[in-house]
Amino acid sequence: MKYLLGRKHLPSIKVTRKGSNIGDQMLASLFVHVLTNNNIDAVLECKFDHLCNCPKPVSHNKYTNFEFRYEDNNYDYAYGNIVQRAINAFNNRFHTNVHMICPDHIPVHFRKLNTPNYDVVMSTKSSGWTLYKEWPYFTDLKHTLRQMGISSCDISYIHNYACLNYVNNAKIYVGIDNGMAHYVSQFANNKAIIIQSGYTNSEFWCYYNYDIIKNKVHCSPCSLRSGCIFNHACMSEIKVNTVIDHIKRKLTQII
Question: What's the whole-model pTM score?
């Protein structure tokens, strides 16, 4: 059956995402917004759906389930992007013509809290999936910022509303390709600096107005979880001074 776009012709869709990776579930919520922007009645059901400001299932409605997936059998992240892959799978299943009408951030629930103000807040840790997304010089960066009189705070282990407040109050957000980069996008847009690993590329996962620092290496994207034979050059060759220069430039823009 070929469906026309619109609530009268397509069943209500319940988008699901298995697992506990917050970044993937944030992107599932972004995908729900893409569907609703294409006039499709869609809701989200996943572990972290309470954080996302998007439609949720109601008990009296019937839904057709659609699992948000972008991985192929080889975990090849060299082509396309995450949401577009899900759109392609959706169009193939329902014979629709959904377009990439995508917000530039992930809408999330927010409550104002009394949290400190810092010049720079940073998220330094990746999930357990791969450590290759991590940048090895965050400790040196923190030390250099202190010497320069630039206040900073590592919010890697601060969660939910508190995390959002720290980013909202900060002048600059510095992070990596991790779940927090998605979660805070509503408040980090236009003030975020992402240190991008060669595990994948920013075009694959990032839909936001972020500045990207990357070291172009011939082996990227590699999708490796272990076994790098190039001494993690994609990240180890990005020096502290390079990140400092980006921070100073952004601070100058703010002033």
Answer: 0.92
